[in-house]
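User: What would this chain look like folded?
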Amino acid sequence: MFKTRLISGIFLVLAALVTLISGGYVTFAVVLGISLIGMSELYKVFRIHNRLPGICGYLFAILYYLLLLLQEKLPGNAADWRVLLFMGFLICQMAVMVFAYPKYKPEQILAGFFGLFYVAVMLSHIYLTRMLPGGQFIVWLVFVCSWGCDTCAYCVGMLIGKHKMAPKLSPKKSTEGGIGGIVGAALIAVLYALAINRFGNAGADVLTYAVIGAAGGAVSQIGDLAASAIKRNYDIKDYGTLIPGHGGILDRFDSVIFTAPIIYYLAVML
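Assistant: Here's the prediction, encoded as structure tokens.
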């Protein structure tokens, strides 16, 4: 199992390097693909992955990404186009429930709507971050914060963890580990800023990166626990089997889903 996880982990790192260094259409296509697979994994939990609520979700996810790609060419405000799209998606989902009644339960319709935001919209911020000025450096904070926090939280929790963070949901996670993860993510972000300033002439503000790292580390833990809560409610171990040793896309990107938007908006504001 360890060997399988290691090989899969190396492949993921290489894939991330190619995707994020390339930028542009490559990053766009890969993030869109990951979003659609992640939506499918979530929709399988609610048994709508190959049914109308899920199909509507995939369609509107693709339309949403096309809006992001073409937003500079659209007339009017790009935000208004996105709001119109989301309203159209809600109407479409409700129409499915009405005209197929009583084939779909309300929670399946809600899951279809939720899946677009929880997976596609949240993950799209990886692409949006990459396209920012200096995004070739900033986008790595998404992964530095989420995966770095996870590693630091695990180590601190193993060493000094005593108080359970969420005993019923994740008995192995401790409050001490959570705090260690946040501090660790901030420190890793600082080291990353120093490295890209030294070797990439990035001009990154170390304090800003520390703040972003701490915030990203905090929300990444919420993302991890939120994904676990859904799995426990529906009594499943993993969302999928796409990544050997790791599970599905949502199992590997559960914390990234929450981290990506936070990194993007903090980078824009700071």
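Residues 74 and 81 are 8 Å apart (CA to CA). If you want, I can go into more detail on any region.
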